[in-house]
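Problem statement: downstream parser choked on a complex file, so we are re-checking the raw output for the phenylalanine run. The parser issue turned out to be on our end (a line-ending mismatch), but while we're here, posting the original submission so the record is complete.
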Amino acid sequence: MQAQLEAIISETESAAPGIQTRPEFDAFKAKISGPNGSLTQVMKSIGKLPKEEKPAAGKLINAAKQRIDAALAATLARIEENELAAKLGDPIDASLSSPDDFAGMAHPLSQVREEICRVFHRLGFTIAEGPELESEWFCFDALNTPESHPARDMQDTLFLPAGTLSKDAPKKGNEAYVMRSHTSSVQIRTMLARKPPIRIIAPGRCFRRDTVDATHSANFHQIEGLWVDKNVTLKDLKSVLDSFVREIFGTSVETRLRPSFFPFTEPSFEMDIKSPNLGRLSDRWLEIMGCGLVDPKVFENVGIDANEWSGLAFGVGLERIAMLVHGIDDIRHFYANDLRFLRQFA
Ligand code: PHE
């Protein structure tokens, strides 16, 4: 019997590697352990043995069966693996990146806005907000901007018919509505809502009736700044803005305040920068924001005593900063939603 079993084992083990398909395997297995299989025959023959030989024979058969089962199991596993590989097609190339590994990202304008907010946060500013749809009073009158000012011209500003604001939107003064043309309206809302000292920045979307080109967009973003305290001076204005600009453009940046005019600041300036880090723009002064000391008339309009309090204000164009930081030459890239552009900032 031992010889018989050994023959079955060696037959099984030598034939197994050649079995390729499931039908082949089923036939092969039946030949060994099926009802008429070779192993089954040997097992049946135990019954005819004398009683005292049966235990030893049983042991032999069990040992043989284990080896045969192992060979069969390995063969089946190999066949199953091949079947799966055939189903999946080409073998998986783990070095190829997945086509959908792009997890998303903040828009470049959001990234630069966050960075600017972080810088001002370190300088002690907190974030304030205001609505994009304003009444004329918040956008102009309270900011000392007279009816005749060009910013209030139909050609420059997007007006909406009266009655567009919801019932509970804050209203003050006359009731013409505008898409805010700058974030300076948030200065007014903040000063009406809380007492000085105040130190806020207000990032937000603005709207102007602009013809869109490489540097103009009817929809753009600003970051407003307002600091109201005792004895705020031009020195504070210069040091706050210099710190900001050095954080964003590096310490080699030069700045200058150029006299200008805004109805809500006195004196008023445009701040220009010049930096060796700005490539082909490094040889010239670049205007990056309007600023000045808060005009006493504005304090009067919001009920703050101009004899006791003083302030500085500034308004930075977010797109302008982002374009300079990243060397972007056309403002329209920001809004085109083209992944080839956006992914560069991932
Ligand atoms: N609101 C001005 C603009 O949009 C910028 C500005 C803000 C100027 C604050 C002075 C102070 O051009």
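For whoever reads this later: Residues 153 and 325 are 33 Å apart (CA to CA).
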